[in-house]
Specification:
about 20% strand, 11 helices, about 25% helix, alpha/beta, three-stranded mixed β-sheet, nine-stranded mixed β-sheet, single chain, about 375 residues
C-alpha cells in the first residue's frame, strides 16, 4: 500500500515523476540503519508505503483509497504486450500457459525438499580403487562447453578426471579401456545443425573403430556413464550399444519452439540409477539450458515401459509433475527429463546438475545449504558405486 498526501496534481507528480530515484523495500528491523545512511549522505527520501499480505496494490490519499487493484491484474496488464508478441513468435499454447501463471495468487515460488542428509555429502564415499582414484573420461566434441564444470564436480567427488576429445577416440589414440566412467557433456555439438546430439552420435555409430570402443565400454560390468544435455541427446541415439536402454526416447525441439535457459524444479524418481541412490522423492532446483529437450517415445507402450526408469521429472512450485510451460520448459510427457538403464549404470539427464554443484551457482537456494549443493550427491553416489 502507498500512502500519499496532497492535491491530485501533487499525487500524480509523485507517482509518475521522471526524476532520478529508486524505490527500496526495507525490512522494518533495518529501517533505522537505512535512515541513518541516507541522512549521512544527504539523500532526500520519503517513506511511501508498506508491504501488505493481501496481494493488492492500494494507494491512499491520507485515509481515502483512491486506487486498488490486485497484483495479478496489474501484472497481466503489464505483461500483455509481451504475451501477444510471444504468441506470434513462439508456440501460442505455451505463451498462454506462461501468461496464465500470473493468475495463481498463491504460487509458493521455487522451493526444495530433501529426502537425504545434506551434511553426509561431504563424507568419503568409497576407498581408492587399486590404491588410486578411479578415472573418468570427460568427453568433448566440437561445440561442447560444459566440460569444466563436469570435471570439477567429479574431482570434488574423488575422481581423477581426464579431458578426452572425440578425435582421440576416432583416431585410435584412446580406447576407453582405462576408465571406470565416461561422461558426455552439454553444449552444441556440431552447432546442432545435424540435430541435437545427432552429429555426435553419428560420428560413433558410423565409425567402426569408435563404435567398437564404445560398445566394449558399455558392455563391461564395472563401468558407468552419464550423458547431460547434448550428451543426453547423443547417448539416447546409442541404444543399440547400451544394454538396458531400449526404453529411452529421442529428444526433439522444445514445445515452446525456443531455446530455454532457466532455473527449473525437478523431482527425483525411485529408480536403479547409481547416480540418484538415496535421493528419491527429493525436489531440487536445477539449471535448464537446451533447445531440444522434449522426450518423444516411439509409442505409448514404449513410454509406459520407461516409467520405472524415469529418474527426473519437471514439477511445478507445488511439487506436482507438470507438462505446462514454463515449469516444464520443453513439453516432455510426464515431465520426463532424466532416465537410466535397467541396471542403473548409465543415465541420461537433460538439465545440468554439474552447473549447480555449488550453491554459489544457484540463483536461489535455501539459506541453510552450505558450500556444496545437494546435486553433489549425484557425483558422490557414482564414487560410492566404484569399488
Amino acid at each position: 500500500s502507498l500512502h500519499l498526501a496532497g492535491s491530485a496534481a501533487h499525487i500524480l507528480a509523485q507517482l509518475f515523476s521522471e526524476e532520478l530515484g529508486a524505490v527500496l523495500q526495507v525490512a522494518e528491523s533495518a529501517m533505522d540503519d537505512v535512515r541513518s545512511v541516507l541522512e549521512r549522505f544527504d539523500l532526500a527520501f520519503t517513506e511511501a508505503g508498506r508491504v501488505e499480505p493481501d496481494d493488492q496494490l492500494t494507494i491512499y490519499n491520507d485515509d481515502e483509497v483512491i486506487f486498488s487493484r490486485s497484483r495479478a491484474d496489474l501484472q497481466r496488464v503489464w505483461s500483455e504486450m509481451s504475451f501477444r508478441l510471444q504468441s506470434l513468435r513462439d508456440n501460442p499454447d505455451t505463451a498462454r500457459q506462461e501468461y496464465n501463471r500470473i493468475l495463481d495468487e498463491y504460487d509458493p515460488g521455487l522451493n526444495a525438499r530433501l529426502t537425504f542428509d545434506l551434511d553426509a555429502n561431504a563424507k568419503p564415499a568409497a576407498p581408492l580403487v587399486g590404491g588410486r582414484k578411479p578415472r573418468v573420461a570427460i568427453l568433448r566434441e566440437q561445440g561442447v562447453n560444459s566440460q569444466q564444470e563436469m570435471a570439477a564436480s567429479f574431482m570434488m567427488a574423488g575422481f581423477d578426471a581426464f579431458d578426452v576429445h572425440m578425435s582421440d577416440i576416432l583416431e585410435g589414440h584412446d580406447d576407453l579401456a582405462s576408465y571406470q566412467g565416461i561422461v558426455a557433456c552439454g553444449g552444441f555439438s556440431f552447432g546442432d545443425v545435424l540435430g541435437a546430439g545427432g552429429g555426435w552420435a553419428t560420428s560413433i555409430l558410423y565409425h567402426s573403430g569408435a563404435r567398437d570402443r564404445f560398445s566394449a565400454f558399455f558392455s563391461r560390468g564395472d563401468t558407468f556413464a552419464l550423458g547431460i544435455c547434448n550428451g543426453c541427446q547423443m547417448m539416447a541415439r546409442l541404444t543399440d550399444l547400451i544394454p538396458g536402454s531400449a526404453h529411452w526416447p529421442r529428444f526433439m525441439p522444445n514445445a515452446s519452439e525456443q531455446f530455454e535457459a532457466r532455473l527449473s524444479l525437478v523431482e527425483v524418481g525411485d529408480t536403479p540409477s547409481i547416480f540418484m541412490a538415496g535421493m528419491a522423492g527429493s525436489r531440487l532446483p536445477i539449471a535448464t539450458s537446451h533447445g531440444e529437450g522434449r522426450a518423444v517415445f516411439e509409442s505409448e507402450a514404449a513410454r509406459v515401459s520407461a516409467e520405472p526408469h524415469v529418474s527426473l521429472r519437471y514439477v511445478d512450485n507445488y511439487g506436482n509433475v507438470t507438462e505446462d510451460y514454463p515449469a516444464n520448459p520443453n513439453g516432455s510427457p510426464g515431465g520426463i527429463c532424466g532416465l537410466t538403464t535397467e541396471d542403473g549404470r548409465v543415465s541420461i539427464v537433460m538439465p545440468h546438475p554439474e552447473r549447480v554443484a555449488r550453491t554459489a551457482q544457484l540463483s536461489w537456494h535455501p539459506e541453510e545449504w552450505g558450500y556444496e549443493s545437494p546435486w553433489m550427491r549425484m557425483f558422490r553416489n557414482a564414487r560410492a558405486a566404484i569399488r
